[in-house]
Design brief:
- Keywords: Transferase.
- Pfam families: CM_2 (PF01817), DAHP_synth_1 (PF00793).
- One of its GO terms (biological process) is chorismate metabolic process.
- The structure is a single chain.
- By secondary structure, this protein is of the alpha/beta class.
- The chain has two domains: about 250 residues, Aldolase class I (TIM Barrel); about 90 residues, Up-down Bundle (Chorismate Mutase Domain, subunit A).
- Helix content is about 50%, strand content about 10%.
- The chain contains 14 helices and eight strands.
- An eight-stranded parallel barrel has the order 1-2-3-4-5-6-7-8, surrounded by six helices.
- α4 links the parallel β3 and β4.
- α6 packs parallel to α7 and α12 packs across α14.
- The radius of gyration is 25 Å and the shape is elongated.
- The two termini are about 40 Å apart.
- Bound molecules: phosphoenolpyruvate (PEP) and manganese (II) ion.
- Phosphoenolpyruvate binds next to α5.
Amino acid sequence: MEITKQNRKWLDNMGLDHPIVIAGPCSAETEEQVLKTAHLLKETDTNVFRAGIWKPRTRPGGFEGVGAVGLPWLQRVREETGMKITTEVGNANHVELALKADVDILWIGARTTVNPFAVQEIADALKGVDKPVLVKNPVNPDLPLWLGGVERFKANGIDQLGVIHRGFSAYNTGHYRNKPKWHIAIELKKEFPDLPLILDPSHICGRRDTILDVSQTALDLNFDGFMIETHIDPDNAWSDAAQQITPAQLDQITQDLKIRQKSSDKESFQSKLNLYRKELDLIDNNIIDILSDRMGVAENIGKLKHKENVAILQSGRWSDILKAMIETGQSKGLSKEFVEEVFKAIHVESINIQHKV
Ligand code: PEP
Ligand code: MN
């Protein structure tokens, strides 16, 4: 399915600059909280105000959102500040109510993107409606599911689309709440180059102190903007308190971010870059040659073992190789994780080849 420049035009049509900054509380709590936050955000680079009206909680019992009574609060934000407004929709009923309130942009949450029935229901409810839709990645690291979410809207004629990387849940997310998987976002961008790609560092980090770093990484990877949870009193927020920041902190972050040029046409830059790229191409070809040689040797070993009726997997030998290579790799500045991953892949392929003999 072709995602064309059409899919970016809505950003210009709405007067949204690069990078687009969507900010506002995780949840709309009270009219006062929404309006106070919005008026402070108006003084920052924020161009779209977000607030969750319906909150998909992983377990019941938490704050599930104020519901439709919050929609007029968002309308007041738009009237009083001029910012566009956006909220999450999770079913056809939410869509109907959000459209009645003329919400400018709708977003699909991570817990909805995992469910093709729900996405289809929302896409059907939006048929013939001229509103931008932002599709968050599903909670699990599944690129086709994310692509599928976008495609369901596209197939219903919804052309103003964007995607949001909010990280993925995993058994071990380290110091993240939801681990960023940059390669999945980049794969998605490769598939749909003209789709605006937005980062939600709040749900990735789950805390305040790492938002700037993660956001800078995204900018360096050519992301088009951010959605950052911002609250007038983060510590007392009714949801996601640990990750929300104040409008003043958001302002500081947008000032500290270094916006890189997508490319530079300076001649010296281009010629140096070309040289490096040629060098990389040569090295990559060498890697393929060496891997092919290695698999040739594995094949010979396989033949030998077969002749002598010896088992293919010699686990003692394999752990010796891995240990030695990790040490050698570290002495040359390569991380343990990287060497381990490369050699595991080589080992699996060697075993496959020996099986085939
Ligand atoms: C949110 O944006 O508040 C939210 C619920 O996000 P996600 O769907 O990414 O968990
Ligand atoms: Mn949230």
